[in-house]
Amino acid sequence: MPLILGPDDVKRATDMGRMIDVIEAGIREQAAGRVVLPLRQNLATSNGFFRVMPCVMRDGGRMGIKIFNGSVEHGVRYIILIYDERSGELLALMDAAYLTAARTGATTGIATRYQARADAASVGIIGSGLEARTNLEAVCAVRKITRAKVFSPNPDRRARYATEMSARLGVSIKAVDTPQAAVKDTDIVVVATNTTGKTDLIAYYGQWMERGQHVNSIGATGGQLREIDPQCFARAARIQVDSLAQVREESGDSTAAIAAGTWTEAKFVELPSVVGGQVLAREDENQITLFKSVGTGVQDVMAGFAVYEQAMKLKLGTQVATFLEHKLF
Amino acid sequence: MPLILGPDDVKRATDMGRMIDVIEAGIREQAAGRVVLPLRQNLATSNGFFRVMPCVMRDGGRMGIKIFNGSVEHGVRYIILIYDERSGELLALMDAAYLTAARTGATTGIATRYQARADAASVGIIGSGLEARTNLEAVCAVRKITRAKVFSPNPDRRARYATEMSARLGVSIKAVDTPQAAVKDTDIVVVATNTTGKTDLIAYYGQWMERGQHVNSIGATGGQLREIDPQCFARAARIQVDSLAQVREESGDSTAAIAAGTWTEAKFVELPSVVGGQVLAREDENQITLFKSVGTGVQDVMAGFAVYEQAMKLKLGTQVATFLEHKLF
User: What are the pLDDT digits (tens) for B123-149?
Assistant: First the structure.
């Protein structure tokens, strides 16, 4: 009996601390080499895209697929299907709009766990959308954060972010009126924007980086987007990525850094190697570090299972009668 | 409100004549070059496979994906999701076990329409499973068939096939005790088996082909399967395929023909070129012709829409509340 989970069910079944641990376990499994994760397929539609990201995780017996489509006119719709990898049974179908933001946040949490200074206590946030929220929540789950500052171009939005997130996380958050002010004298930076660097400015510049700071950039996941400038890639001593091949090919920030000559592949480490203990994401207290993410099927499948298990426990969602025939050979 | 269709709903909403026409329209759209159809992704699981076939059809405003998994222990499960290609709305989720057999049959119907002699009136069938049923039904939808013969190794199964399909199609069907007897003196052959050529025999041999005969082979869709021998590829004057790249790479019959030196690429024509009127699948009454299929995403998406539209008309299936958030940019 597959479980159908809508947006509210998924939100209620998301526990950020648990999601971080579950995705980290998945990334550790990936490091052991037993995960099948092809590059995602991106099909052009009349007015946008149709994208599919399947992933098979053999050790944990989990598999699934995220399917999403988007257009400027109609927005984006995400769905995740998860399966028992051994029996082939379809376990759940769920909305993945919030889930995608939550798993992106959780992955930033994992990267921050391995790459921020152990004593990091302050966060500068650029952006005030859903991703800026889930990312801050995840950072707060892995470091004892006491204060944060937020910048977003719209004063109302940044003020609302500060009020709501302060209440939610129990952290003092101040809205500020420039991006520089947001990131100045902070231990951790979160850049979570939709900036393009065309009519607007790029959100974050390498000249603002400070000694010992750890920067997370989770926007600019498409070639037409720009969030951090090439100087960031020059100043960071270590650059952690969730998938080197995808970050290199898919992010507009990468294309710009490659063109500017600040893309040095020797500085890059992949999250599975870091979590698997093969490489260090930070070597000393003074290094500037950068995490750049685009998202992978491992994150989606693990997040889907984390939500599914919690939803079953809390009896959320709608069970539908098994509707897939089981055709034996 | 997405519609969920289980196996019985899909069977009740399948009208073979209509499905043939709908898939043919999709193949015509494919011929015009506005279809995005990547090669399917095949992920290995612990004990089998997880396969995804997305397809975007821009002219008709349709898109979708078939996802299926299988293992020898647990059998196969298929699901199709269909979407409005313009708005991105998820329209339906449906079981695709029967649907896959029906669309394979329908595609054989289209191939037969273009490749069998116009006066073809008799069919020889090798196989008695679900595919042997849907394929015969489709052949009867495109030619005035008056008699058929069926062979399958199990006498009970072939007798049951003859009785049941005679009643269903209003055609005289005789069960016979050798494959040669089934195909002898027939205008159209349908080979629809799971034979491997290892412990069992290959189902059909080129030496049995007769002047003017049209042969459809829809089995051996995997590298470990064998259904027709290399001689078939030598004797056929024209070989029609649904996807040349996939038939060449995925069918064990193709691998064997290539190894035997009977694979002559100049003889091959693709279904979209035939339906689009660019090439002829049969040049005269005397040619022996062969259709070899492996299945494509176009067939799945069009079949999914044919079933969805019929199900809406007949009020079949279960409407579930919209569970995908519509995230605007």
Answer: 999 999 999 999 999 999 999 999 999
Close Cβ partners of A315 (under 8 Å, ≥ 6 residues apart): none
| Chain B residues 84-143 with a CB less than 8 Å from chain A | 85-90, 93-95, 97-98
Domains (range + CATH), chain A: 3-100+297-319 (3.30.1780.10), 116-292 (3.40.50.720)
Residues of chain A positioned with their CB less than 8 A from the CB of B81: 67, 79
- In chain A the first and final C-alpha atoms are separated, in Å, by 22
- Give the CB-side neighbour count of residue B69, counting CA atoms within 13 A: 27
Nearest to B80 by CA among B99, B107, B101: B99
- Among B61, B72, B88, select the one facing A70 at the smallest CB separation: B88
pTM equals 0.93
Per-residue pLDDT tens digits for A96-138: 999 999 999 999 999 999 999 999 999 999 999 999 999 999 9
Residues A242-263, buried b or exposed e (16+ Cβ, 10 A)? bbbebbbebbbbbbbbeeeebb
Read off the tokens for A102. Answer: 């939550």
A329 band by pLDDT with thresholds 50, 70 and 90: low
Nearest CA in chain A to B93: A323
The Cα B126–Cα B221 span in angstroms is: 16
CA-atom Rg of chain B in angstroms = 19
Taking CA atoms, B93 is separated from A95, B9, B96, in Å, by: 14, 12, 9
C-alpha dihedral, A168 to A173 to A177 to A182, nearest 10°: -110
Alpha helices in A13-96 (DSSP H): 16-31
Q: Kindly report the nearest CA distance between residue A129 and chain B, in angstroms.
A: 11
